[in-house]
C-alpha cells in the first residue's frame, strides 16, 4: 500500500488521493488506512492525514460514523497545543473548516448529480492541493463544494408546502451537536480529620446524651442528581447507551430541506401526495413537480423578500444611531484588475 510507503512524500500523496476519492462517504476502510498517519514523524504527513480524514468525515454524524467526535477533539487538541508543529497545526485548522464547510450544508464532490465530471470542481481541488506553495490557494476548495439540499418547485417556479418521507432515523443525518464550554468543577468541602487524641483533651459535657453510631446513607453525587433531572439527550454518551432508543425508524422533512448524500436513497414521496415529481427525488437538488389538482389553490412556502431584509437593516442602523438611506443605490463590485504571481 502506498500509505505505508517508506517515502514520506508518497504517503502524503496517497493520503490526499484517498481522501478525495472517498470524500463524504465515511468509509471505515479508508479511515483505518489514514489513522496511522496521524502519528507519523513527518509534520507534512500528519497535515495531509488530517485534511484527508476531514474530506471523508464531511457531513458524518456520531451515529453514521462513531469516530467523528474523537476526530474533532483531536483537531481541537492539535490547534491548541503549544508543542504541536506549525505545519500540522495549519492542517488541523484547514480540516476543521472542511468539516463545517458551508455551514455543514455542503459536501465535497468532483462530479455533478447526473454523474458527469464537474470541471470547475476538479480545477478548484487541483489548485487547493498547491496550498503548500501559497496559503491563499486554500479558498479554491469552495469550487469543489456542492450544496446538499432538496428543493421542489412547480411549473411557475414556486415552492409548495410539501413533505417527503425519509425511511431512516432522523439522528442518522442530523447536525453535529454544538461544542459545549467547559464548566468549572465544584470541589466538595472535605471535613478535617479529627484525631483520637483530641477527644481525650476535650472535656465531655455532663448530662450529654451519647448518640448511637449509625452508618449514614451515602448521598448521591451531584453529577448523578443532574442526570436524574436532565432529559436523556443531555446525559453523557455512556448513559445514553443504557436508555432504550425510542426514536421512530422513519421521519418526514419539509420543502425545502437539507438532505445529505447518504440520505437521498432513503427519500420517497408521501402517500396520496398532491404532487408528482418529474424525476425521482433520490436525485436531490431542484426537483420539478406536476400538480395533480391544478384547479385547487396551492399552499406555498412563505418567502422573505429582499426589501424586508433591507428594512431590517435600516431599523438596526437607526437603533445604532447611524443614518442609512433605503433609496440609496446598491454598492457596485470592485472593478476587474490583473495580478502577476511573479511579484509574490
From TrEMBL:
InterPro entries: ARM-like, ARM-type_fold, Proteasome/cyclosome_rpt, RPN2_C. Keywords: Proteasome, Repeat. The keyword Metal-binding does not apply. Residues 206-226, 331-344 have a biased composition (Basic and acidic residues). The keyword Repeat applies. Residues 200-226, 323-344 are annotated as: Disordered. It comes from the Eukaryota. It holds the Pfam family PC_rep. Residues 148-301 form the 26S proteasome regulatory subunit RPN2 C-terminal domain. One of its GO terms (biological process) is proteasome-mediated ubiquitin-dependent protein catabolic process. GO terms for cellular component: nucleus; proteasome regulatory particle, base subcomplex; proteasome storage granule. Transmembrane segments: none annotated. This is RPN2_C domain-containing protein. It comes from Heligmosomoides polygyrus (Parasitic roundworm).
Amino acid at each position: 500500500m502506498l500509505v505505508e510507503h517508506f517515502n514520506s512524500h508518497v504517503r502524503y500523496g496517497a493520503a490526499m488521493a484517498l481522501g478525495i476519492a472517498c470524500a463524504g462517504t465515511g468509509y471505515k476502510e479508508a479511515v483505518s488506512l489514514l489513522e496511522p498517519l496521524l502519528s507519523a514523524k513527518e509534520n507534512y504527513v500528519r497535515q495531509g492525514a488530517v485534511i484527508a480524514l476531514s474530506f471523508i468525515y464531511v457531513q458524518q454524524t456520531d451515529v453514521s460514523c462513531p469516530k467523528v467526535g474523537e476526530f474533532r477533539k483531536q483537531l481541537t487538541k492539535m490547534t491548541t497545543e503549544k508543542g504541536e508543529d506549525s505545519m500540522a497545526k495549519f492542517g488541523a485548522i484547514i480540516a476543521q473548516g472542511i468539516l463545517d464547510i458551508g455551514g455543514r450544508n455542503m459536501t465535497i464532490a468532483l462530479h455533478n448529480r447526473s454523474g458527469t465530471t464537474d470541471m470547475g470542481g476538479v480545477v478548484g481541488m487541483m489548485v487547493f492541493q498547491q496550498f503548500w506553495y501559497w496559503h491563499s490557494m486554500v479558498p479554491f476548495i469552495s469550487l469543489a463544494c456542492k450544496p446538499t439540499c432538496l428543493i421542489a418547485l412547480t411549473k411557475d417556479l414556486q415552492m409548495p408546502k410539501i413533505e417527503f418521507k425519509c425511511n431512516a432515523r432522523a439522528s442518522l443525518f442530523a447536525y453535529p451537536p454544538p461544542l459545549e464550554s467547559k464548566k468549572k468543577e465544584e470541589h466538595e468541602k472535605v471535613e478535617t480529620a479529627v484525631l483520637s487524641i483530641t477527644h481525650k483533651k476535650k472535656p465531655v459535657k455532663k448530662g450529654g446524651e451519647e448518640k448511637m453510631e449509625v452508618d449514614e446513607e451515602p448521598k448521591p453525587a451531584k453529577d448523578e442528581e443532574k442526570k436524574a433531572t436532565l432529559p436523556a439527550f443531555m446525559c453523557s454518551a455512556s448513559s445514553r447507551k443504557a436508555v432504550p432508543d425510542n426514536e421512530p425508524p422513519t421521519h418526514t422533512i419539509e420543502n425545502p430541506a437539507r438532505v445529505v448524500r447518504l440520505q437521498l436513497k432513503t427519500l420517497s414521496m408521501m402517500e396520496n401526495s398532491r404532487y408528482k415529481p418529474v424525476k425521482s427525488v433520490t436525485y436531490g437538488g431542484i426537483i420539478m413537480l406536476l400538480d395533480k389538482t391544478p384547479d385547487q389553490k396551492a399552499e406555498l412556502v412563505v418567502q422573505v423578500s429582499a426589501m424586508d431584509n433591507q428594512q431590517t437593516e435600516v431599523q438596526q442602523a437607526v437603533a445604532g444611531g447611524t443614518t442609512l438611506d433605503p433609496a440609496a443605490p446598491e454598492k457596485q463590485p470592485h472593478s476587474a484588475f490583473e495580478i502577476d504571481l511573479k511579484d509574490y
